[in-house]
Amino acid sequence: MTDYTEEQRNELEAIESIYPDSFTVLSEVPTSFTITVASEAGEDDETVEATLKFTYVEKYPDEPPLWEIFSQENLEDADVEDILTLLQQQAEENLGMVMIFTLVTAVQEKLNEIIDQIKNRREEEKRRKEKEAEEAEKVAFQGTVVTIENFLAWKAKFELEMAELRRKRQKEEEQIGKFKLTGKQLFETDHNLDTSDIQFLEDAGNSVEVDESLFQDIDGLDLDLDLDDPDFHPLEMGSDED
Predict the structure, then answer these.
(1) Which residue among 20, 119, 157, 174 is the one 20 to 30 A from 5 at the CA level?
(2) Nearest to 66 by CA among 38, 87, 45
(3) Which whole-number Å values give the CA distances from 126 to 119, 123, 160, in the listed order?
């Protein structure tokens, strides 16, 4: 007859010596404890971690223990499901033998696989972004390849834009023409223009300055002018030939 209690007690002592820093007893009846396992360090010292909770049933190890993921760090939901499936498979394969160390070791290896997968996904994402950047740079350098289709599309768009520009310009010119008056219209609408020049001369009349030095030597000029002669015409001076 199997002494389940004895086997369970011996296994607990062995587990505690193997995982002294991560083994914690939660209760004695039923026997329940946790073991924390972590992956090896990945990129930037990142790790994934899981704390496994085990509870002995009365007939363990002939019956599998109860287990659950008590807590975890950096694991996706899919990773948690994979670990639980792995525990089920390992327990079925090891019925009749104490199996806690085997289960924990399997989870440890799975965590290492997960951290490698995370690293690979990040490297693939990095390569994908680098490739996209290279493609974008290549397109920017080469420019758009001109085809008949995209040229005709560009031409149609350009002609529409030019027609709209001409329409706006014509409308602006028409608006300006409505408010532009001719010289005649200005005089007809503003009667102050009739007397503006005269008023300017009158206003300036009292302030006209004469340079008297221009006339100081007028006596020395040979001016043979007969102002009393009725036939004298100043404009005809110098036109007679001797």
Answers:
(1) 20
(2) 87
(3) 11, 5, 44
- Structure tokens given for 154: 């560009």
Edge-first strand order for the sheet with 31-38 is: 23-28, 31-38, 49-55, 66-73
Q: How far apart are CA 201 and CA 206, in angstroms?
A: 9
Kindly report whether the global pTM for this prediction surpasses the value 0.70: no
- The torsion angles phi and psi of 10, rounded to 5 degrees, stand at -65, -40
Pairing of strands 23-28, 66-73: unpaired
